[in-house]
Amino acid sequence: MKRRDFLKTGAIAAPAAALAAPAIAQGVIEWKCPTSFPSKAPGIGTNATTFVERVNAMADGRLKLKLYSGGELVPAFAVEDAVQNGTAEIGHGTPYYNAGKNSANHFFTTIPFGMTATEMSAWLKFGGGQDLYDEIYGQRNLVPFNSGNSTVQAAGWFKKEITSVEDFSGLNMRIAGLGGEAMRKLGVNAVLLPPTEIFPAFQSGAIDAAEWVGPMLDQAFGMNKVADICYAPAFHEPGAGLNVVVNKDAWESLSPDLQAIIRNAAEAAESETIAQFEYFNAQAFKALQDSGVMFKTFPEEVLAALKTAVVEVLDEQAAANPDFARCLESYNAYLSVARPYSAAFSAPSMLQRG
Amino acid sequence: MKRRDFLKTGAIAAPAAALAAPAIAQGVIEWKCPTSFPSKAPGIGTNATTFVERVNAMADGRLKLKLYSGGELVPAFAVEDAVQNGTAEIGHGTPYYNAGKNSANHFFTTIPFGMTATEMSAWLKFGGGQDLYDEIYGQRNLVPFNSGNSTVQAAGWFKKEITSVEDFSGLNMRIAGLGGEAMRKLGVNAVLLPPTEIFPAFQSGAIDAAEWVGPMLDQAFGMNKVADICYAPAFHEPGAGLNVVVNKDAWESLSPDLQAIIRNAAEAAESETIAQFEYFNAQAFKALQDSGVMFKTFPEEVLAALKTAVVEVLDEQAAANPDFARCLESYNAYLSVARPYSAAFSAPSMLQRG
Question: Where does Na(+) bind (chains A, B) (predicted)?
Answer without folding.
Answer: 212
